Amino acid sequence: MLPQAGITAVDLTLGTPLQGEPLLKQPERLEQRLKEIPAEPGCYLMRDTDDRLLYVGKSKSLRSRVRSYFRSNQDLSPRIRLMVRQVCEIEFIVTDNEAEALVLESNLIKNQQPHFNILLKDDKKYPYLCITWSESYPRIFITRRRRMRSQLDRFYGPYVDVGLLRKTLFLVKRVFPLRQRPRPLHQDRTCLNFSIGRCPGVCQQKISSKDYHHILRKVAMVFQGRSDELNELLNQQMYRYSERMDFESAAKVRDQIKGIDQLTEDQKMSIPDSTVNRDVLALASDENVASVQLFQMRAGKLVGRLGFTADAARQENGEVLQRVIEEHYSQIDSVEVPPELLVQHQLPQQQLLGEWLSEQRGRRVQIKCPKRQQKAELIELVERNAEFELSRAKRGQELQALATEDLAQLLELTKQPRRIEGYDISHIQGSDAVASQVVFIDGLPAKQHYRKYKIKSSSIVSGHSDDFMAMAEIMRRRFRRWAMVKAEGADLEELRRSSGSTLHTNGLNDWPDVVMIDGGKGQLSAVMEALRELDLHEDLVVCSLAKQREEVFLPGAQKPLDSEPDQLGVALLRRLRDEAHRFAVNFHRQQRGERMKRSRLSDIPGLGPKRVKDLLAHFRSIDAIQLASIDQLSQVPGLGTALAEQVWTYFHPSEDAEQASPS
Fold it and tell me: Rounded to an integer, what distance in angstroms lies between the CA atom of residue 58 and that of residue 370?
């Protein structure tokens, strides 16, 4: 059923059954299908030989977009190349415009769950290592958010042992000369890291972009599990330097080799007499979730252990492993694909995956499911590790579920709260007053929903604070939209039920199940008074958590609830309160620091707020401004020579301004 007007559905199968062979193996039939696709906006649907939906896409010109999949494999990602190999039929749905196609695509993906649109879920527990190859001087850092800003950037992982990953990165930065700071310490000179050989002087471009990329390619080999190959390359380079009598360069390479040996000396396990590079995959699952472990074996040694979490509902174990293989190997470089994969279960399309991996690697890749001897024992070892990870994840989920259930009983709710919000105020005697809103979903922090507020009340100024008034102000600002919608006659219950929809267009998808205020009865009363003004006091579940005895108060109650500080529901509120406090304090410190910077520069005659902002943006710190010469100050856009002299004179009152200008 198509909800939008002006959408025409066309099925290219025309009532004929799907052919067994993929379209790539039937050139004439493929060309016929492509000719039948109109050059109009709409959505296209690709299916396999079993009539399963593989992929849904949209385009303002269906014919051009669909043809692009079959022109050349070189322009397609490994994941899409694998998908195109399986396409046996193409359908399309024509829309009036591209906007309608976008909405239709979102609905189709949500309802149909196509295999190649819905990828393996990132496990937020496990970190990745990112190298920003798209930049002239790439950065290397650890992150838990796998968000591709450029096709050139690379993520390595996810790594199970974050401690080992941090140690490895620390040692790598000692072995290889890499940029040590995200931002330059000085504006016009290098820092101590350059002097001691830790950094090649990226901030002042002492090294060319090409040479720096060459260093990073060596570093990437460590995280690709190619340490032996890197050692061999470094040994050859060391001997070449020695033959040219360049003993200083040879010594540096020798130190790098020793560093690489230090990185790989503490191996967790090894297989005797094994020279084959292989990846080993196994999983442990329950009815809902599967924990997958991937061991990277290089020359008989375990060099890396990666972890994934997949949805196991209505999926066989072989299907889960296949999805992990598709996701993981479509994101890595071809040199990282080993010649052999050992898997715990037979894969549904094992031969097809082997051909795809062989094409990506450029050489043959075998996928095996061993049942005996040493390789089977290795599978059992990986499976045992997956079982430990699954049990640890289940324990965490069970604990969170128990905490939300206990909180529901404590607050006498009809169901377990999913979204819980916590609020706190931070200031120093009224100065730089701010507030924080933190959100827990299913008992875990959801930082994408955190919000910061600057207190706007004119009554709260330096020397006069009023936490009650500040908290009431935040409640009015937070729930103003909901109050307006209710005043217009909307059904709040219906809005709450649809608040989880990603396609909800009103922006009202943030109704909390519980609101927690950091404070006692006074703060709670002020909040309820503000909600009463909004006519939401009977709709929201509000409580407060007092600091001293960890007591929970409800509106209108003279005494706290009968609870224990260590019970799970109260512990959940305490974690929420502590997170709200941390977030508010950090924001307050940031605002206070910015004010102190601005206040010092604002004392300079003729320097207004905009010029203060321009100076700080250019030099990044007061110290850098103080050390700058008049010529350097005058280079700030809009400052001018006269004002630059005024700034310099302010910081150097006892010197003649003309003497400071360099000859």
Answer: 42
Domain ranges of the chain: 8-112, 278-393, 419-591, 603-660
Interval 51-60: pLDDT, tens: 888 899 888 8
CA distances from 58 to 43, 49, 381, 479, 506 (A): 4, 22, 44, 37, 24
Is the separation of the CB atoms in 74 and 133 below 8 Å? no
pLDDT category at 121 given cuts 50, 70, 90 is: very low
Taking every pair of Cα atoms in the chain, the longest distance, rounded to a whole number of angstroms, is 92
8-112 sits in which CATH class? alpha beta
Under CATH, what is the fold of the domain 278-393?
Nucleotidyltransferase; domain 5 (3.30.420)
Q: Read off φ and ψ for residue 478, nearest 5 degrees.
A: -65, -40
Give domain 419-591's CATH superfamily.
Answer: UvrC, RNAse H endonuclease domain (3.30.420.340)
CATH homologous superfamily for the domain 603-660: 5' to 3' exonuclease, C-terminal subdomain (1.10.150.20)
- DSSP three-state, residue 123: coil
Topology agreement, domain 278-393 and domain 419-591:
yes
What are the residues whose beta carbons fall under 8 Å from the beta carbon of 252, sequence distance 6 or more?
Answer: none
Using CA atoms, how far apart are residues 140 and 129, in angstroms rounded to an integer? 7
Contact call for residues 435 and 471 (beta carbons, < 8 A): yes
Amino acid at site 492: L
Residue 588, CA atoms < 13 Å, CB-side half-sphere: 20
Cβ-contact 167, 221 below 8 angstroms: no
Q: Are 45 and 90 in contact (CB under 8 A)?
A: yes
Torsion of CA 371, 372, 373, 378, to 10 degrees: 30
pLDDT digit string, tens, across residues 514-557 = 999 998 888 899 999 999 999 998 889 999 998 778 889 999 88
Model pTM score: 0.51
Tokens in use for 17? 């059954």
**What pLDDT is attached to residue 423?**
95
Instruction: Give the bridge partners for 57, in sequence order.
Output: 44
